[in-house]
Amino acid sequence: MKLSVALFFAGLFGALAAVFILLSFGTDYWLLASETCKTESNFSVPIKGGDLVVNNAADAENTSMFYHEGFFWRCSFGGRVEEDSMLKFWFTNQPHSKVCIHAYLFPFPLSEKTHNATTYDSAIIYRGFWSVFVLLGVTAVILGGFIIICAAPFASYCLYKAGGGLFLISGFFLLAATVMFVIWVEVMDVVSSYVIYQKAHLCSGFQLNIIYGLSFMFAPVGVFFCLLSGLLFLLIGRSVQMHYR
Predict the structure, then answer these.
(1) Residue 228 half-sphere exposure, CB side, CA atoms within 13 Å?
(2) What is the distance between the alpha carbons of residues 220 and 224, in angstroms, rounded to a whole number?
(3) Kind and range of the H or E element at 17?
(4) Is residue 10 packed enough to be buried (19+ CB in 10 Å), middle (13-18) or exposed (0-12)?
(5) Per residue in 178-197, is it b (16+ CB within 10 Å) or e — as a string?
(6) DSSP state, 50?
(7) pLDDT tens-place string over residues 92-140
(8) Phi and psi for 106 in degrees, rounded to 5?
(9) Quick one: CA torsion of 186, 116, 61, 97, rounded to 10 degrees?
(10) What does the angle CA 11 – CA 14 – CA 19 come to, to the nearest 5 degrees?
(11) pTM of the predicted model, to two decimals?
């Protein structure tokens, strides 16, 4: 009876882990950003982010480029600044015409124009490791789920241990990926270099606002359920092994 209850909760936590991890992996909202050029000039001010150009100071102060980025895509679109600009990222509020490029090749705000060759190459390598960690985490949780399904009900303690181990591996890889993403935004000089370049070459009043999106928030929730279910499956496997001795 106790094993059945433990198996139920382990399965529930494992299913929640898989759902949150796949949502984090499949949606391109790890990072949300908006950039604005504020100026006191009355002359025309071009704002470069995609193909957006505004022709007077009043429009410049009210027009922004919006970005959202995930594992697969980095998308950008233009729009006017509002009280709650984050609503711009909601699916129904986004324009039909937006520019999307592969995020694993050009993660925000990295570009060959705004960063020197050394920084660019180092950042691409760093991003490559992040992508590998995410892929390994997603693969491990899917394989772990299939193995646990094959193990039910109490068919083989080895399968429970293997499935639990894969859930733990997935949790550790995705935890590492989440920490790496925070380091990318908060610690590395990629963002600061981009802002300095834009202020020097584009607009002295350039402002960049960055927040973490829903995809990023799904990741630690998935990691929590992944580690919890992994430990429960390992304990279930050990209990089944001791029961059949």
Answers:
(1) 18
(2) 6
(3) helix 2-26
(4) buried
(5) bebbeebbeeeebbebbeeb
(6) S
(7) 556 667 788 888 767 777 766 666 667 777 888 888 899 999 999 999 9
(8) -135, 70
(9) -90
(10) 125
(11) 0.81
